[in-house]
Amino acid sequence: MTFDPLEQRGIPLDRQVRNWRELAVEPVDPDRSDPYTRCRIITMNGIEVEAILFSHQFARHCPDLEVKRQLAEVRYIEAQQQKAVNWLLPGVSSVLETTISYEQVAVDLTAWVARAEPDPYLKQAYQFGVLEDFDHLYRYANLYEMIEHRKAEEIVDQLTEVMPGRPTPMHHRHPVDNVREPYDRQRADPLSKLHALTVMSAEQQTMNFYMNVGPTYMEPIARKLYQEIGLIEEEHVTHYESLVDPGETWWEQLVHHEYNECYLYHSFMEQESDRRVKAIWELHLNMELEHLRIACDLMRRHDGRDPAEVLAPQLPNVLTFEPNKQYLRELIADQLDLTTLGTGYVRDAHERFERMQQQLNGDGPAPSDEVLSRHREMFGGDYRVETEGEHPVASHRR
Q1: Lower CB density within 10 Å: C or N end of the chain?
Q2: How many Å apart are CA 336 and CA 125, to the nearest integer?
Q3: pLDDT tens, 36-59?
């Protein structure tokens, strides 16, 4: 069934403020909830955080007091939405358990987007990035067994495999080689714009999460791993944000943010297995429809254009959390040895890459390799969840 958010009316803005009782959502049960329910929660938290940060940046560059007031009013509701969504995460889960769910999001969200992306250059950007997040999941899963003596399969529920991707120490590139070519805002498929904004927002939230929770650990090996992967997540944000055409006006970006929220809340409402969480997705969708209407009105008044010129005429097929095991195995077999050079990709190490590697890793092993060495000492081997057979690359098998 098609759904055109431009033709829908949501909850009036003056009826969207919730009281404390309404905001006090009950968290999901980590032992009984669908792992993809947690993935949807983490994704929408990142989307809401991006909406809030974008609105603040817009306000700081906007001289019109009335526009700033309108942004502030919508932004307050977005902040309430972010609190309700993020507070669905179970407080009994450890930081590391939540981290493993974050990496499951990065793997299965980015893999789905890569499969659905119509633009070959953008598709390659997502394929490149997902193999790095896949390895991050593997490193954190080994750390999890080391310091909490539990297995990541209890969290990912074998929906996502846990095994080596592109080795984490090889993710450290010279910053200039993390910048990609942007899509052309006048020719890009509207779906491509939604994909870029979604993956950028998810990676940005992961970056923020790691930079804040990393130093809360006492174990030196955990502190070091969060520091290393936190730096890589900054590279990933650079990688994905550079895909967005910087020529988009503030108004154009505003309607893209609101339209994307409608798209994702609608997608997750359609597939959510937890009825209580589904009700929150539905409520937030009806709020976002009004936010989109307001953004469209602002664009017409201040940008002199109809939002229908830049937005999809109806929502695309729902973005779906689902296993991507075979697709990821194909990427691993074909693209594990890639790195970046300028705005493209190469298989051979080059001077900038080797210099960066020497600066970071020249005096000893990277923390991500130290995790594997320590795990082998403790358990006699590394931790994996290989449900589809042995690793597709012979050199990475046990």
Answers
A1: N
A2: 14
A3: 999 999 999 999 999 999 999 999
Q: How far apart are CA 247 and CA 222, in angstroms?
A: 41
Its pTM stands at 0.97
Gap between the Cα atoms of 133 and 117, Å rounded: 18
CA distance 249 to 315: 22
The CA–CA distances, whole Å, from 27 to 24, 79, 86, 90, 229 equal 9, 18, 9, 5, 27
Residue 342, pLDDT above cutoff 90: yes
Please give the average per-residue pLDDT across 260-277, as a whole number: 97
Task: Check residue 350 and give left, alpha or beta (phi > 0: left; psi -120 to 50: alpha).
Answer: beta
Beta bridge partners of 385: 162
Q: What angle do CA 90, 194, 200 make, to 5 degrees?
A: 55
For tokens 């987007």, name the residue. Answer: 113
- Residues 76/116, Cβ–Cβ less than 8 Å: no
Identity of the residue numbered 117: E
Q: Which amino acid is at 306?
A: D
Quote the tokens at residue 392: 């597709």
What residues have CB less than 8 Å from 350, skipping those under 6 apart? 339, 341
Q: For residues 347 and 226, is the Cβ–Cβ distance under 8 A?
A: no
Report d(CA 264, CA 40) in Å as an integer: 9
The residues with which 162 forms a beta bridge, in sequence order, are: 385
